[in-house]
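Look over both lines:
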Amino acid sequence: MFSRNESSVTDFTLSGLSNSYELQIIFFVLFLVLYVMTLSGNLLIITAVHIDQRLRSPMYFFLSNLSFLDICYSTVTIPKMLTNVLSVKKTISFNQCISQLFFLHLFGGTECFLLTVMAYDRYVAICNPLRYHIVMNHKFCYQLVVSTWLAGFAHSFTQAFLTYQLPFCGPNKINHFFCDVHPLAVLACSDTFFIDIFIIANSGMISLTCFVVLLLSYVGTITAILKIHSSEGRHKAFSTCASHLLVVTFFFGPCVFIYVRPPVNYPADKLVSVLYTVLTPLLNPIIYTLRNQEVKNAIRKLSYK
């Protein structure tokens, strides 16, 4: 797919989360349980949204797409990490490494844009409720979701292409539990200054664009909520927005820390990466379910079938 300069490195070794065998076993059991819970929780939301007729609004359409992205996002990193714990040689080929990086940024970038779209959806619902279903019609919602995937693809293609061009002459040990831009860039055996600038600019542009849209949406939404006379109406509106704001914070916070900075490995990087690759996909269905009575009722209805 890409062409690049020849490199003496054909595969990499992933260091994982710890060198201790006992800790690796603990991590294996812990992350296996978390991964199963992530799959179960997100699949439950997708099933509930598609079966229950009461969950056919744009908000739940976007929520089911978010759950699908969370399944894909966690699947990119966790199974390989679990496999490496049980393997003597914790290696990954160069092409597999670039593929993992590509899909990580495809699903992650798409989720960034989707969370921004969901904030806009709440803005329209609260600030312009009478025209909500006219503005957020089925065609427009599908167009928004397709646009998030196209934007995510453009982002991930750029990141993967730039990383693919780097020459690797050794060492080949990646100080991480998955392949990503910064851990790979520090292993390159040539000056990566300009590529680093492009990578940071790409991530920074996405973060800035999404942040500005999110900020404007929430300013407008909170202003509209404060004008609601009914305390019950204000509570319901704040509850919906609070759920989304929690998800945005858990996802964007770690991502900004990791990607909008020069490619230097910090000791906290692995822990921060666990937050957005493992915990956030798990917490999303929990946050939306616990704070949303309609979703809880739909899940109860499924359990009785």
